[in-house]
Write a structure and sequence with these properties.
By secondary structure, the chain is α/β, with parallel strands linked by helices. The protein folds into 3 domains: 126 residues, 3-Layer(aba) Sandwich (Molybdenum Cofactor Biosythetic Enzyme, Chain A), CATH 3.40.980.10; 50 residues, Molybdopterin biosynthesis moea protein, domain 2, CATH 3.90.105; 88 residues, Molybdopterin biosynthesis moea protein, domain 3 (Molybdopterin biosynthesis moeA protein, domain 3). Helix content is 20%, strand content 29%. The chain has 6 helices and 19 strands. The strands form 7 sheets. The chain has a 6-stranded mixed beta sheet with strand order 7-4-6-5-9-8, with no helix packed on it. Strands 16-13-17 form a 3-stranded parallel beta sheet, with helices on both faces. A two-stranded antiparallel ribbon has the order 1-12. The radius of gyration is 32 Å and the shape is elongated. The two termini are 22 Å apart.
């Protein structure tokens, strides 16, 4: 009998190293970065407003309330230079969240602290400092900064950040394909009536679910009868298409535990009695280099 920690160390110490791959963002959810990812550009890429309001020269708000002439509107996605909008002394431009700051403006007054006066003027009710509600280039990330380090597990938020900096592919450890097979003549699936001595296969759905929850690609290898030939065929076919295999049943000391017999013949195995309940019998090994 050996402790669980020893069995775990034996298994992990003989598993092949993971393989890094260049993965598209669409396929990267749940994967682990194999190398750091740096931002290729500043975030934000240009000075823009964090608020809906009016772009102003901070010096023009001294002694507020003050009235300024509205010279135009800058919406998100509009280049104020191309649109001919600039802010000179005594003027302001209506601006929407995320829009680039127009030339001449160095601050934004949120719309709630202003009031329109007629068609072309606005009253500013608060004095502001330069940079008020302005997001500067590179404020979140400067070009060359590390966005995420190696070992980061990529979640939805990470993918959003990577998309925002124009990263389309990332270096990540390839998602593993793990096959799962159940063995036993007594096993049945679904709601079909059970004959005396039969039970339903619960282990395989549980193992497949655990693998999916871990971010692994589970491969259902089905239910295999207690017969050496189909067991060997299932194992050989499985290692040809998967990175690892899990089998349930057939590894204890019974007369019909043929998985043990087959693996002893085709694999490099260690048979363990682990100090856990349930599932004391545990086998681990390699078949053609596949765990």
């Amino acid at each position: 009998m050996i402790p669980l920690e020893e069995a775990r160390a034996h298994v992990l110490g003989r598993c092949p190293a993971p393989v890094a791959d260049d993965v598209t963002l669409a396929d990267a959810l749940g994967l682990v970065l194999a190398a750091p990812v740096a931002s290729p550009e500043d975030v934000p890429p240009f000075a823009n407003t964090a608020m809906d309001g009016f772009a102003v020269r901070a010096a023009d708000t001294v002694g507020a309330p003050v009235e300024l002439v509205v010279v135009g509107t800058v919406a998100a996605g509009v280049d104020p230079v191309a649109a001919g909008v600039s802010v000179a002394a005594g003027t302001a431009a209506r601006i929407m969240t995320g829009a680039p700051m127009p030339p001449g403006a160095d601050a934004v007054v949120m719309v709630e602290r202003t009031e329109r006066v007629g068609d072309d003027r606005v009253r500013v009710d608060v004095e502001v400092s330069p940079g008020n509600h302005v997001r500067h280039p590179g404020e979140d990330l400067a070009a060359g900064d590390e966005a995420f380090g190696a070992g980061t597990v990529l979640g939805p938020g990470h993918l959003g950040v990577l998309a925002s900096i124009g990263v389309e592919r990332v270096p990540a450890w390839r998602r593993l394909r793990v096959g799962v097979a159940s063995t036993g003549d007594e096993l049945r699936e679904g709601a079909e009536p059970l004959a005396r001595g039969q039970i339903r296969d619960a282990n395989r759905p549980s193992l497949l679910g655990l693998l999916a929850e871990m971010g692994v690609e589970p491969v259902d290898l089905g239910r295999v009868p207690d017969d050496e030939a189909p067991i060997e065929r299932a194992l050989v076919d499985g290692v040809a298409s998967c990175d690892a295999l899990l089998t349930s049943g057939g590894v204890s000391m019974g007369d019909f535990d043929y998985v043990k017999v087959v693996l002893d013949r085709i694999g490099d195995m260690r048979w363990m009695q682990v100090a856990i309940k349930p599932a004391k019998p545990l086998a681990f090994g390699l078949v053609d280099g596949v765990p």
